[in-house]
Every structure is written in structure tokens, then in C-alpha cells.
């Protein structure tokens, strides 16, 4: 089990978690990341045989951005983020399932001929960690983004519209999640399978919380989970069944729950306005 | 009322869109959907049978949401309820009371699953949104493990449990139709939930906590306790729902036992305005949609999963509408 392997396994989740983090720092909790990621997976798998893996990566990014952009419009209209996010999960499951089965009935197998070479998505994901930390912590724009997550009213008082800021941030965040989905198709599996994200979008939510909304900590958490997953693959490869395979699948979720349970309550801060709809004052 | 108009508009638009995408005749598709949802006694029974799990999960969502607790975990609670019912149903000697024991086990397991979220919330301040989502994923893995391991049907390599003995099944009065006694049970449950919400002190406190938590606290209501009980009850309802689906429809446990009933239940409850009666009506509408989608798939080639897409769109549309209403 090498470092390279861990990074490879963790990359899709890392992109998704960083996307979720970005949105949450602007005060938007997107439960629907799973749905967004799944949609990006399908778009990538459909595009790859036609335009090649590199353009397909871009298609995944754009699909994630557009899906999240639609969610942003719903949020901008004042919808409850948890409810709307649940809707996004359903839409993501439904739309990818329907399109894929329809195409399958017409003979589409969903397998790619070429996948991306190692490195691009993985290394860019790692590079994004300090970049995002710098952007959020050290730039003026990043300050505005964070302020939208802490106190959108204060942002509005400076003459900036927090609704607009959240829109743009969610587009970018969706792009990151979309790259995560594309990475899953173009690097890990080489094909689209129904429900292939297998809870990664939900895990991204948990990782943001565990990493206390900091890119570096979120990355550490993601890599630890990646190591656990890679270790699990090795056990399987060796045919060892110390723990039944299906229980191993639950391991990341159980570990996350356990860490959450052990964390002292006051450490679970987070952006003050997270999840709260912002209404423009008149 | 406009909630229903909005939902019907979304359903019609998405349905038409899906039919158009497959290039079939929309009139024929609509007729096929109607035929297999309402066209015959068998179809009607199918609609009712499909409404049952939606209403259990819808009631679960309604009870929690009314108390201001975001239980996204009905899916997991439904699954562990079904798993517990399987274990009890296969483990006990068959008899009329083994049916009752299975149902009870389902409710207890669902409640316990929600109880984990309650504990995490009370002890470590973990939001139930996150914990219930994670518990859903654990439940999926648990079912996978159960049907590959301890509950797997002996002698066959299939990832499923053995069928429960016939005596433990919920009665089907009009066979071969799939309408079963669970339909009555869920009707009773909806009535009980209505009475509890609107004719008891507990229900008044619960609604007060959901609507105005600060005011409720100022009036001396133990907000945390009310919300914890609501989440436990919500989990129990979803758990019984899983047991009922197992005992009434599938009679055995397998992977992907739930095609997202827990999430669809959220759509059902929202469309029903978080009221038992409305949720029941919404479950009938979605039940008809699920039954009708079978016909649509045969005639127009529209995949059945399109139902999830439509429910998701309904949730999003209703979320926007609710956002508009609230000042």
C-alpha cells in the first residue's frame, strides 16, 4: 500500500469534500452533493467516448457547476437548504438512473476506451488544498465568501449582495464536486455504474465537519479515509476475511460517527449562518 | 391547495418530458400509466400497496419535521426495521404472534437506529442531519452483510434471506392482488399520529417546539426532550414500515430492499403539508405514480426510476414555495 495508491483512492472524495467545504464556508449546506456528483459521473461517462477523457473531465466539471448552480437558485429563492438538498439527492439518483437505463436499453454499455493517466486529477486535488486555504484565509474575496457564511447581513451592509456571492461560490463548488465525479469515472472505474458514488457525496459532508471547515484538516481526514479504503482493498486482494466485506463497507461511516461522538461539543463550530436562508432586507 | 397544483404540474411536466425523451406517444403512455395505476382492481390494489411504505416513511418524516428535527434517516430506519423483522420472523417458530413480534422488532430496531442519532445529538451536539445520513449508509451495508452472512438463505448462493413462513405474512384479502393488511395498519398509525399531534398536550408541545422553539422554551417546554422523543418515534414509524413491507410484500430480505422509500417519504410528507391526512393523500398520489410507472415502462420505455426524479423535483419545488411563504 503506497502513498500513491492512497492519493489515487482519495482523490474523488477530496475534490467533493473541498467543493462541499467551499459552499459551506459561504453559508450553504448542500446535502445534495451526492446527487450533483452522480450527475457529473454520468455526464463524464457519456462524453468520454465522444470527446476523449480530457474534455470529458471538463464536461464533468461543467455538469457539477450547472447542477450546483440550479441548487443555488433554489437556495436564493429562500428554500430550506436541508429540504432542497434532499430533493437534489432524489433528482440526482432519478435522473442518472433513468438516463442510464434508457441508454442501456438501447445498447449503451457505459465502459470507456481510454481513461486519464495518473497524476493530473490527483495532484491538482492536492494542490487545491493550500490554494483554497490561501483563497479563503488570505484574500479579500475569500473574506467576503467567509463573511457570507458568518453574517450575510454584514456583507449586505458593505454593499455586496450575499445572494450573488453564494450563487458564484456554489457554481465553483459544484465544479470541484464535478471534477470529483469525473475522477471517479475516468480514473477509478472507467465506466458508469448506477449509484457509483456510493455515498461519497454524503461522506464529503461528514469530512467537512470533521475537518472543522479547514481545507488542510479536511484533506488529512480524506487521506486517512483513503488509506483505510486502500487497506481494505488489499485485504480483499489477499482473500483475507478478518471482517466481512459488507461490514468493511460501513467502516468509513462508522469511523466518522465515532469521531463525531468523541469530539467535544464546543469544537463543532462552523460558519454561524450555515444552513440559514438569507433574505434581502428592504 | 396550490401545493397540490404545483406538485401535479411538476409531475405532468416531468412525465411528459420523460415520454418525449423516449420518443413514444404521450397519449398511449398516459393511458398505460392510468391502466396500471387505477384501471382495474389489481391495479388499484397495486397503487395502495405501493402507497403503504411511502406513508410509513412519510409519517416518520412528518413527526420529526413538525418538531423541527431533520430526520433524513427514514431510509436507514426502514432498512434496519426490515432486517430485524426478518431475523425475528425466521428465528421464531411460526404463529400469529410471530407476526406481531416481527412488527414490534421492526419498530424497536427503527427506534434504536434513530436513538443513535439522538445520543449523538444530546451528548456531542452532532446535527441529526449528518448522523442520520451516515446511519443510512451504515444500514445499507448492514443489510448487505445480513443477506450475505447470518440471514442468507441456506443452500443457495443468492444474496437474500429465506422466505418467511406463510403464517408470518400479512394477510392479502384479494389475491392475486398485493393489497395487504399493512394498509389498514398504516391507516391506524396515521390516525394515531393525528390524534397525538392535535389532541394531546404532547402534540401541542411538539408543534410549538417546531414552530417557535424559543417561545416554547420560554413557556417551560423541555425542547431537547420533545425533539428527542419525536426523533425516536419517527425512527420507530419508519422501522415498522420496513417490517410491514417485508411481511406484506417481499416476504424476504435482499440487497436494495428499499428503492429509496425513506427519501421518497420526505417528499410525501412535504406534499402532505406535514399533516397525517395530507401525507396519506400524498402517499396515494405517489403510490399511483409508482404503480403507473410500471405500465409506462412497458409501453413507452420510460424507466421506473424516473419516479425518484419526479419526487425530487416535487421536493425542490415545495422547498422553494415554503421559502416564499415564510417571512
Provide an overview of this structure.
The complex is a heterodimer of chains A (282) and B (327). With 282 residues, chain A is mainly α. Chain A is 73% helix and 0% strand. Chain A contains twelve helices and no strands. Chain B has one domain (2-325): Orthogonal Bundle (ABC transporter involved in vitamin B12 uptake, BtuC), CATH 1.10.3470. In chain B, helix 2 (26-38) crosses helix 3 (41-66). In chain B, 58% of the residues are buried. At the A-B interface, helix 4, helix 9, helix 11 and helix 12 of A face helix 1, helix 5, helix 6, helix 11 and helix 13 of B.
Highlighted features:
heterodimer, A: 282 residues, mainly alpha, ABC transporter involved in vitamin B12 uptake, BtuC, globular, B: 327 residues, 13 helices, 75% helix
Write the layout of secondary structure elements.
The complex is a heterodimer of chains A (282) and B (327).
Chain A: H1 3-25, H2 33-51, H3 53-76, H4 81-105, H5 120-138, H6 140-150, H7 152-157, H8 162-189, H9 200-210, H10 215-237, H11 245-249, H12 251-262
Helix pairs in contact in A: 1-5, 1-8, 1-9, 1-10, 2-3, 2-4, 2-8, 2-9, 3-8, 5-6, 9-10, 9-12
Chain B: H1 2-22, H2 26-38, H3 41-66, H4 74-91, H5 96-124, H6 128-148, H7 182-198, H8 201-211, H9 213-218, H10 223-250, H11 261-271, H12 276-300, H13 306-325
Helix pairs in contact in B: 1-13, 2-3, 2-12, 3-7, 3-10, 3-11, 3-12, 4-5, 4-6, 4-10, 4-11, 5-6, 5-10, 7-8, 8-10, 11-12, 11-13
